[in-house]
């Protein structure tokens, strides 16, 4: 049994063979993937995973594709997207007079969640405004800015384990850190609950607008990119080190170190993954040679 025939019998699953990953990453880079599947419900997701695991086909769950670099050539991997299966936004019980709990499915876009908070006068997640991620992706990497992290408002995470078991894991059972939530390996995030506070809609909206304005002023949002390429070393900023190493504007093919923010690599039009990888390695070598600092990659390079 091959994957095509196995999936043909599963209802409520959209799938494409040899789908270019460039269409699904914010870098707009990536060659054809063996299979891209979009289950339309959680039930369909569970049914989809059975033949994939039975056939021992490697797969990843891809959110907004905003923190990854996909390979140029054909990729023998299956990609699952959850934006159709896990996209619920549900308000639940009010735990205290000044606290409300909101559940968001993993496939929900982070900006959709923040817009909901604006419309319903809920504060707590504004610091994440403008981050191009899904809730699931933001949870896995503990998305954060200088103003706060998604883990700050987290109550619990709805997970699907490697053997199909569903369970909830509380915030106090996790060890979130810089760009990590400490989620058990091989688990799939289905959704998460957040504790938020009632607040004037105008106040929440004004905060979000100011944060987005600041992002536009300091980040090269006009270009395709994957956001920050490197984690900030302790007590230092990766962008500052890259700039002081004289690499702002350095270019390989159509991959360029942004002149606006040196910790961003932008796609000037037709960048290839190999161009970006070569540029990443050049940055690492130059920064280490100049400052003796080894930069740690934030971007996930798919291989």
Radius of gyration: 20 Å
Derived from helix and strand composition plus strand pairing, the structural class reads alpha+beta
**Main sheet summary:** 6 strands, antiparallel
Q: Roughly what fraction of the amino acids lie in strands?
A: 25-35%
Pattern of helices and strands: HEEHEEEEEHEHEEEEEHEHEEEHE
Which spans have pLDDT < 50 for at least 5 consecutive residues? none
Distance between the termini: 26 Å
| CATH architecture annotation name of the largest domain | 2-Layer Sandwich
Helix share, percent? 25-40%
**Number of E strands:** 18
Tally the structural domains.
3
What's the CATH class of the largest domain, please? Alpha Beta
What keywords describe this structure?
303 residues; alpha+beta; Uridine Diphospho-n-acetylenolpyruvylglucosamine Reductase, domain 2; Uridine Diphospho-n-acetylenolpyruvylglucosamine Reductase, domain 3; six-stranded antiparallel sheet; four-stranded mixed sheet; 7 helices; 26% helix; globular
In brief, what are we looking at here?
With 303 residues, this protein is of the alpha+beta class.
Write the layout of secondary structure elements.
Layout: H1 3-8, E1 13-20, E2 32-39, H2 42-54, E3 59-61, E4 68-69, E5 75-80, E6 89-91, E7 100-105, H3 110-119, E8 122-123, H4 135-140, E9 144-145, E10 148-149, E11 154-160, E12 166-170, E13 188-198, H5 201-218, E14 224-228, H6 238-244, E15 251-252, E16 255-257, E17 264-267, H7 273-291, E18 300-301
Parallel strand pairs: 2-5, 3-5, 4-18
Antiparallel strand pairs: 1-2, 6-7, 7-13, 8-13, 9-10, 11-12, 11-13, 14-17, 15-16, 16-17
